[in-house]
Structures are given as structure tokens and as C-alpha cells.
Amino acid sequence: MSSQPFGEPTIGPDGSLCATADAARTDAAPLPLAGLLALACGGFITIITEALPAGLLPTMSAGLGIGESLVGQLVTVYAIGSLLAAIPLVATTRHFRRRPLLMAAMAGFMVANTITALSSSYALILVARLVAGVSAGLLWALLAGYAIRMVPPAQQTRAMAIAMVGAPLALSLGIPAGTLLGQQIGWRWSFGVMSVMSLGLLAWARAALPDFPGQADAGPLDLRRVFHLPGVAQVLGTMLVFVLAHNVLYTYVAPVLAVAGVADKVDRYLLLFGLASIVGIWLAGVLGDRLMRPMVILGIVGFIAAALMVALWPASPTLLAIALAVWGLAFGGAPALLQTALSRNAGASADIAQSLFVTGWNSAVAGGGLLGGVVLDHAGATTLAWTVLPMLGVSLWIGWHPRGWRTPDPI
To answer: Is residue 95 classed exposed, middle or buried when 0-12, 13-18 and 19+ CB atoms within 10 A define those classes?
Structure first.
């Protein structure tokens, strides 16, 4: 694989990514699946590393001799690392070559999971989790820009969908499998397996991913300029409110299911959500390059319909299952669509824009957990779905204008 499959993209006068002559000749070229799947595996490891302590809460608590609330802070510290690291790291490393930088982020997971698997010190594991969170912040900021640079403009959303498939696979299959493994043979083995997977990913990435140069003329980081590029603020605003609403409901889906008397089947409902998310990613990959704006709008409307079903019929297990399937379908393609749109709008500043995306996404995750917890404590689980409906209305309003969702420039 050549180091520049499609050359450097041409940057238009408004900062957008334009098709190059090389891209015109390669619109029908096969996708570089080996490299894109390596990126997807990176996302898979990232999500499992983040959420696995939640699934292994009791066993890790017993093994480390600490309370479950302290084990929960391993997830919190990870999120804080991602939240705080994305923008500074991208700013510092803009002139670095992309593949070594991406591999350094992947190596962070190998180190952090190895320490978690072997150490009996809660403080050391806490530091390792912070390192893993920092690595995640860098990886997510790089991943989207990497995927779109590997393909011509007309294949960008398909490439992004493949690169993003690791997240729903981790949520639907990886975390339950890791939790089951930890329950059967010990939680340390789960993190040990993740460490071995990270080592294998490093070899895979080195062999399958092309290398790209950084920005040789990278000047001072100008977040305000990037934020004000046409369409960037719109995409970020749509994402922020949409993901906030998602996490208010998803973080506390177990109490919602308990209202319908299916608290013992949470894993099955989440599996349904995850499988529907994979279908959503597939649809985004097939249709997103030509129908980006309709798919974004339909995704928000689909989530509104699902939330309404949960709000109106909270005691019906059947309707809750339908609602989770619709919700998963609506949510699954959102990361690929939003990140592709953001990268197109940001042009040469795509990595900076993606760092804003990662920061906003993690802020929404944290904010959703906090807001959902307050609503749950003061108004009960049946109020959560009603809470997200106004947010989704705001997301729909922000996302409605076609400015942020342009298709590739014509050739």
C-alpha cells in the first residue's frame, strides 16, 4: 500500500475538501478494508477499555479490596483523560507524521491494560486509566481524519462507517463478552486479553495503514477560526445536544427497563440496541455520501419517535424493545455521518475540528450521566424519556439547515 493512496486533498477557498484529479480516477476503487478495519479495531479496544470496569464492578471491587464506587471512578478518570487531552494533544502534534502518532495512541492502551491486569495498587491502576483516557482522546481525534484521507471524497462516509463499526460492536458484543470472561476466569484476564489485542493491533496498523504527513506549516492553534468555518459550529451543535440526549437515556436504561419488569434482561435489550446500531452504520456507509442531510435528520426524528414510545408506554416490554431497535438504528450511523460532515467542513483543519468533536462528545457523555442521575433521583425513571425530547427538538432545529451536510464537491 502506498503512503499516499489518493494524494493530499485539495483545499478550496472556503477551507473545504475538494476532489483531486487522482480522486476522480479512483472513485470506484476498492476500499482499503485492511486499514479501515484496523482503525475499527482501535475504536473497539477503546470502547471496551473505557466501559469494562462497569461490567466487572463487583469482581474488581472484591479483587482490589475497595468499594464499588471507587471502581466506578476508573470509568470517570478515563473520561476525564479523554476530555482534557484531545485538544492539547492535537495542537502539540499537528506536525507529527500520522501513523507513528496513531500507533503511539494504540500503545497507550496496551500499557494501561497491562498495568490494570497485573497491578494490585488502586492508585497505579487509576493512573493507568488516565493514560488510557488520554490515548483515547488522541485516537478519536485522529481516527476520522485518517479514514477520510485513505479514500476519495465519494467514498468518505463509507470509509468512516467501516472505521466506526468498532464502537457498536464493542457495546453490543465486546463488553458482554469481556464481562462474561471476567466473571468466569477473573477480571484480570479480561484486561490481559485487551492488552494482547492492543499488541496485535500495533502490528496490524503498521502493516495495513498508510502513513501521512502532518501539517508542515502548522501555526498557532486557532480554535475560534476552525469553529467559525462554514458548517463546523452547526455539526458540533447538532452532535452535542443529540449525544447529550442519548446519554441521559442510555446511561440509565436499566431503571427504564425495570419499570417494564424486565430489569433481569438488560443485556438482551442492549444487544438489540447494539445490533440495530450496526445496521445504522451500514446504512450510513451505503447512503451517507449521497444523502447525508436526510440521514442526519431521519436519525434525529427516529430517536424522537423512540423516546416518545418509551415516554408514552413505559410498562410495555414489547414496545420498549421496538423503541430500542429504532433508537439503535437512529444512533448507529450518527458518529460516521457527523464526523464525515465535520471533516469536510473543516478541510485542512480536520484534526483540530475532530479534537473539538471528541471534547464535545465526552462533555455530552459526562453531562448526560449527571443530568440523567438528577432526573432519576428527583422525578423517577419514567421522566427520563420526556427529558430528552426537548433536547432532540433542539438538535433537529440546529441540524435542519443544509449548510453543514454537503456532499462531495462535483468533479
So the answer is: exposed
Where residue 52 falls among pLDDT bands split at 50, 70, 90? confident
The three three-digit cell numbers of residue 164, written as one number: 466506526
Average pLDDT of the chain is 82
Q: Give the model confidence (pLDDT) of 360-381 as tens digits.
A: 887 887 788 778 888 888 888 8
Q: What single DSSP character describes residue 155? A: G
Q: Which three cell numbers stand for residue 62?
A: 472484591
Q: Is the pLDDT of residue 7 over 60?
A: no
What percentage of residues in the chain have a pLDDT greater than 70? 88
Distance (Å, whole) CA 323 – CA 325: 5
Residue type, 135: S
Q: 267-280: b or e for each residue (b if 16 or more CB lie within 10 Å)?
A: eebbbbbbbbbbeb
Please, which residues bridge with residue 17 across strands?
A: 11
Packing angle of the helix pair 156-164, 122-149 (nearest 10 deg): 160
pLDDT tens digits along 56-85: 777 888 899 988 667 777 877 888 888 787
pLDDT of residue 206: 94
All three cell numbers of 66: 475497595
Gap between the Cα atoms of 256 and 381, Å rounded: 5
Q: Distance (Å, rounded) from C-alpha 347 to C-alpha 342? A: 9
- C-alpha neighbours within 13 Å on the C-beta side of residue 133: 22
Rounded distance between C-alpha atoms, residue 229 and residue 16, angstroms: 9
Q: Mean pLDDT across the stretch 74-100?
A: 82
Cell 489518493 belongs to 6
| Share in percent of the chain as helix, strand, coil (round to 5) | 80, 0, 20
3-state SS track over 210-221:
CCCCCCCCCCCC
Q: Are 405 and 287 in contact (CB under 8 A)?
A: no
Does residue 169 surpass a pLDDT of 90?
no
Domains of the chain: 32-208 (1.20.1250.20), 223-404 (1.20.1250.20)
Instruction: Please report, for residues 13, 232, 296, 390, the alpha-carbon distance to residue 401 in angstroms, rounded to integers and kept in the order given.
Output: 21, 12, 11, 18
Strands, E assignment, 27-127: none
186 — alpha (psi -120 to 50), left (phi > 0) or beta? left
Percent of the chain with pLDDT over 90: 33
Unique residue bearing C-alpha cell 492553534: 221
